[in-house]
Design brief:
The protein has 175 residues and is α/β, with parallel strands linked by helices. The chain contains six helices and five strands. Strand 2, helix 2 and strand 3 form a beta-alpha-beta unit. About 5% of the residues have low confidence.
């Protein structure tokens, strides 16, 4: 696997940092992608720059998009962010910190960059075991996105490669 390239979504948080480290440990040359999407906390974007530098990403891009325009989340609005939710609360409903379609948007940018780089490995650090009610962190979502990616890109339609599910941790990876 040494020498292969991968696009890694890097928020600067624990999950994505671990994901970047896994990609590096598997021998990938990583291309890190971070989003400044109008989130209230900017510390993770700053952290992502330091992480990409320390873990020697081949390239790190920070993309500016403003999801505040749509609203719908405590992370992009002036709504209070709940703290200290109980296990029972985390197990029911979708929390107000869910940002509508965020991972779909992020994966779409990653897919576009991967196609330009001629890369078929995209790493996303979503916590599938404790997804806290976010629908776009479930394994079913990642599988559906992978299927869509294989229908929607020039490189896959022309037979140059395929995006595949992360069971082997060498393709479209969720951690």
């Amino acid at each position: 696997m040494s020498g292969q390239k991968a696009v890694v979504l890097l928020s600067g948080g624990l999950d994505s940092t671990t994901t970047l480290a896994i990609a590096k440990a598997q021998g990938f040359e990583v291309y890190a992608l971070t989003f400044r999407y109008g989130q209230r906390h900017g510390i993770e974007v700053h952290a992502s720059r330091e992480i990409a530098r320390r873990l020697e990403a081949a390239q790190h891009i920070v993309v500016d998009i403003d999801l505040r325009l749509f609203g719908g989340s405590a992370l992009t609005a002036d709504s209070p962010v709940p703290k200290g939710r109980s296990v029972e609360e985390m197990g029911t409903g979708i929390p107000i910190t869910y940002v509508p379609a965020r991972n779909t948007i992020f994966l779409s940018f990653a897919l576009a960059w991967a196609e330009v780089l001629n890369v078929f490995d995209i790493f996303i650090g979503v916590n599938a075991l404790d997804y806290s009610g976010y629908p776009d962190c479930r394994p079913e979502y990642i599988t559906a996105y992978e299927q869509m990616a294989n229908l929607a890109t020039k490189s896959t339609v022309e037979g140059h490669g395929r995006f595949s599910y992360p069971r082997s941790f060498n393709r479209f990876v969720e951690v």
